[in-house]
Write a structure and sequence with these properties.
The protein is α/β, with parallel strands linked by helices. Helix 3 runs parallel beside helix 4. Helices cover 26% and strands 32% of the residues. The chain has a seven-stranded mixed beta sheet. It is built from six helices and seven strands, in the order ααβαβαββαβαββ. It binds S-adenosylmethionine (SAM).
């Protein structure tokens, strides 16, 4: 069992069962019945919500335990969800096969973050959307969740550099918000919000 398997094996949903607020607000950009890739979907709150909106969703994650819970959540909402256990350190989707890429608190280490982001971007069709929310390096001064290693935290500038030449940034922001996402994300936080479109 990996770190995330152990966390997700505990009762309940670490980040709740409702979608992330930024994803909820940005999802209007997606065309109806989009094919959506959700790497690091964990217990599935975001992928399942996108499926209830009529999209075809593929959730990939290194936690088999998380994705099993995602399947249970999908069944409880009466929607299909494709899931695959993968390690984003070396996984890549088929080229140009998705209309949107959703990365919500999918914190990857600097050692392979950029190459993983580029591989994921290659899986997008031209015009496809990227919607990302993650903790900013300034989150180290807060107690509302997230990695304690600055190497795993994202600034908007890092993300724009990761995706340069592949994804055109459309919205880049960082600042304070109040999180209310299950027991693991609660309170004042400093986050990065980033939206872009596949070139
Ligand atoms: C903070 S949780 C966020 C879960 C979900 N996105 C949410 O917001 O509810 C981070 C997720 O990223 C996944 N993850 C971390 N490193 C990964 C990797 N190398 N490959 C695949 N998934 C990974 C974890 O298993 C976990 O589900």
């Amino acid at each position: 069992m990996n770190f995330w398997d152990q966390r997700f094996a505990e009762p309940g949903f670490k980040y709740g069962t409702e979608p992330n607020a930024f994803l909820h607000d940005q999802a209007y950009r997606l065309l109806p019945v989009s094919q959506v890739l959700v790497p690091g979907d964990g217990e599935g709150r975001n992928g399942v919500w996108l499926a209830t909106q009529g999209h075809g969703v593929t959730s990939v994650d290194s936690s088999a335990v998380g994705l099993q819970k995602a399947q249970v959540l999908a069944a409880s909402r009466g929607v299909p969800l494709r899931t695959e256990v993968v390690d984003l350190a070396d996984w890549q989707p088929a080229a140009a096969s998705f209309d949107a890429l959703i990365l919500i608190y999918t914190h990857l280490p600097a050692a392979f973050r950029q190459t993983a982001h580029q591989r994921l971007a290659h899986g997008l069709r031209s015009g496809a959307w990227v919607v990302l929310e993650a903790f900013h390096p300034a989150q180290l001064g807060y107690n509302s969740g997230g990695p304690k290693d600055v190497d795993m935290l994202y600034s908007p500038e890092q993300l724009s550099a990761d995706f340069e030449g592949l994804i055109q940034p459309v919205l880049t922001w960082h600042g304070e918000i109040t999180l209310a996402e299950g027991p693991s994300h609660q309170g004042l936080a400093h986050v990065t919000r980033w939206v872009g479109q596949r070139i």
